[in-house]
Amino acid sequence: MIKFNNVSVHYGCDEAETIALNNVSFEITKGEFVTIIGKSGSGKTTLLNVLGGITKPTTGNYYFEGNNIANYNDRQISSYRNEKISFIVQHFALIQNFDVITNICIPLKYRRNKKIPKKAYIYEVMDKLGILDYEYNFPYELSGGEQQRVAICRSIISDTDIILADEPTGALDEENGNNIIELLKDLNKAGKTIIMVTHDLELAKIGNHRITMKDGKIVAEEFTTD
């Protein structure tokens, strides 16, 4: 499904150049639960951004279902992000002057060839995440944990092939964090490919494909059959 071939990402130039990713190569099979672990500055979020089509590789190639995403133009990248990828990011990426239900449904407005989920299903997911009562609230009226659950709901109802999660439980208490992890596991069992960045060694064990990063490189890669 996904193949990285010697992908590097450089920022700046000359003495100010930073190498965020350094010749990274790996493959991800459809339906895997991938966890990417590493300390701050290890390159794991940059890797997630390349996977999501937000950051273009400086060198190397990124193939999705045989297509080289690194060569896509802006229109193709936008279509790829909207139809194939859902994001759960650390800072929620909610629009503050839109209410909760509008924020959740934003990606659906730009769908061209994909079936839009029924409102009953959207409400069902909201209810599971404990945010149904906040349908018409604005993000600034919610706690950080509630905003995170709105972002997760938006990702789920988008019904994409891949969910990219950057520290998805970072703003949640233990109970809600565990609920989100169980939800991601259920989505994975239903066939979704989950790629999750975390600094938590225990959370990393959830994945059946674990990638450890340091200084922009993959230093370990493990597979389990559990």
Automatic annotation (TrEMBL):
GO terms of molecular function: ATP binding; ATP hydrolysis activity; transmembrane transporter activity
Domain ABC transporter: 2-224
Classification via InterPro entries: AAA+_ATPase, ABC_transporter-like_ATP-bd, ABC_transporter-like_CS, MacB-like_ATP-bd, P-loop_NTPase
Cross-referenced Pfam families: ABC_tran
SMART domains registered for this protein in UniProt: AAA
PROSITE patterns xrefs: ABC_TRANSPORTER_1 (PS00211), ABC_TRANSPORTER_2 (PS50893)
Keyword rRNA-binding: no
SUPFAM superfamilies: P-loop containing nucleoside triphosphate hydrolases
Keywords annotated in UniProt: ATP-binding, Nucleotide-binding, Transport
GO cellular component terms attached to this protein's record: membrane protein complex
Family membership noted in the UniProt record: Belongs to the ABC transporter superfamily.
PANTHER family from the UniProt entry: CELL DIVISION ATP-BINDING PROTEIN FTSE, LIPOPROTEIN-RELEASING SYSTEM ATP-BINDING PROTEIN LOLD
Name of this protein: Putative ABC transport system ATP-binding protein
